[in-house]
Write a structure and sequence with these properties.
28% strand, two-stranded antiparallel sheet, alpha/beta, 6 helices, 202 residues, Rossmann fold
Length: 202
């Protein structure tokens, strides 16, 4: 396992994709991506590539994680819902930037591995739920922000119901990272960078 994050990784991959946000860069610095990958693949942790984590799932490219985190505009007081825990890396990065992360995973083995990794890091503000992706986490709503780590065709209305007015959702929609903002007048939508994600499955 590689414990030290290379400065070149932060400078060349993370910083350009988070608009040089110092808080996001520091979050990546304190959460080595290698901790969330199998030992056999850890040597690829600081390259800008998605890597398999089993069950047909991947850990996203770090540039994509940095961009989606930046678009989410995390604030220290935010309560965030993540759909698709996967490796746990995105949740761990967000844990350094917000008050609480509520993350939902549908695959039991990934849920178990991610929760074990995060607890080993003594991260106390990430909360896990093993459930269908389609439900979100209504018992803990409303959320300030919601982030999807799996690709989808559209965002279901139930997610907007779980989002506060003034809140936002970042999600890969039809292979484009998309930002939704909930206002008192409705939903605003802004498409961003093209991307490739594993499919959203209920």
């Amino acid at each position: 396992m590689i414990n030290k994050v290379p400065e070149s990784f932060l400078k060349n991959i993370v910083a350009p994709n988070c608009n040089n946000d110092p808080h996001i860069i520091n979050a990546f610095k304190t959460i080595p991506r290698s901790w969330f990958m199998d030992d056999a693949l850890a040597r690829f942790a600081f390259e800008d590539n998605a890597q398999p984590i089993g069950f047909g799932q991947t850990i996203s490219k770090p540039s994509t994680v940095a961009l989606m985190t930046y678009l989410l505009a995390p604030e220290p007081s935010d309560k965030v819902l993540e759909i698709g825990t996967g490796s746990g890396f995105q949740a761990a990065v967000l844990s350094r930037l917000v008050s609480a992360v509520y993350t939902v995973e549908r695959i039991p083995r990934l849920y178990a591995k991610a929760s074990e990794r995060i607890r080993r890091l003594f991260i106390k503000n990430v909360f896990f739920n093993l459930a269908s992706n389609s439900a979100g986490w209504p018992e803990e709503a409303p959320f300030d922000k919601i982030i999807f780590t799996c690709g989808a065709k559209e965002i279901g209305e139930n997610y907007f119901r779980q989002l506060k007015v003034g809140g936002s959702i970042v999600a890969p929609i039809n292979d484009k990272i998309t930002l939704f903002k909930k206002t008192s007048e409705g939903i605003e939508k802004e498409e961003n960078k093209e991307c490739s994600f594993v499919e959203y499955i209920l």
